[in-house]
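dumping this here before i forget
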Amino acid sequence: MDKWLSHPTAVKILSVVIGILLWAVVHFDPESTQNSITASSETKSIDMISIQTEGLDQSEYALKLVEPSVARVMVRGSRSALAFADDDDYSVSVNLGGKGPGTYTIPLTVGKLPKGIELVTVSPAQVQVVIDRLDSGTFDVGVVTQGKPAEGYELGAPIIQPSDSVRVTLPAQDLARVGSVKIFVNVDGEQETVRDKKARMIVFDKSGNEIKGASIEPETLDVEVPVKLPGKRVPLQIGYKGELPEGLSLQAIDTAVKEVTVYGDRGQLDNVNLLAADVDLSQIRESGEVELELLPPEGMKAVEPSKVKVSVTLSSSDLKTLQVPVTFENVGSNLDAKLEAPAGSTVTVQVRGTKDELESITAADIRAVANMQDLKEGSHKVRLQLTLPNYVEAVGDEPTVTVKLTASEPTLTQPDGGDESPPPSPSPSPSPSPGAPGNNGNDSNEEPGNSGNIETEPPGGNTT
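structure:
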């Protein structure tokens, strides 16, 4: 070691090091170092930080008010640290642990700051908090429709599932103000039923103002608003048309559907009193059930149901011939009608039906009408209009007859409203014969000079 220190180069190096150290000691100033570090940091203000709440038992209490609801935080740090941190990295909260209903003034707490940044101030330092007790109540839900359905359509009663009532939880003071719970459904221009499977509800106070923050159970409901045409229930009348194959007759025709609903314009529905539909017998070969399509009456738009099942019962057919009286209708004034051909007052009608039906049918069950509408005096060939009992049909075409129209003979009447015939004449009273038994000479009431039979002349008549 001594040998190394005695070396001239080593001595020079050591001298330089010692000189540097002495210079540093002389020029070192602690206060100026601190000022230099401070001068290199910056401050930053983070505004409008929402104040968070923590520690409140939300199953029992509701936070009514935090005033103010935002805070401003002033922090300090290096330029790079401040630039690196986002505003979301800063948080401010108020601890409500153990607090019940009431009004409180509670200091704010600033959350953990980003690395290299320190808090300068928080403003405000404390906030006012109002806490209320939660309460619940059950309320009916109403459906409010918005807009109008398509022209001619009407709204039915809304259907709410699974229930039309909900449980509303609010601070006690707010719950006392609840006036209604409503669901809004838009039906503008709709022609079909509107359905919302997840309809949300809005709570309103008694003045119609919305109450926000309500907890509603269930949160959503299934709502259906029927949109349909006006309807009317009318009887269903099943008839038949066409002809069955030869040898078969219709024994019965029936359906379990007795009424249907006809849809259409409200003003025209008053004119619809039944719905008639016919089974086409020409398509029937045996007894059984057929599906019959129902068509809406003229002017109507729909009928429900649109199809029905019809039970048709067939049987072997027989024939029967009847002499049916002819009835004249719509004969002109001052005219008399008389059947000219065939002779008499009846016409031969042959009918087909089941054996049971034909056994009970008589001529009185059939109407044969000759319509004389607009016919003048003279002879006319007229086709009869036959009206037959159910399940009985005429064989062949409706018969044609010849009817003669003649002028009616005038009826004689007395002038001035007198009787049509003169009053009867009094009967003549015979006078007693002379010498007749019980009579001695003249009758005590007989006038002198009168004897023999006397005939009284009727007024205006001659003496016989």
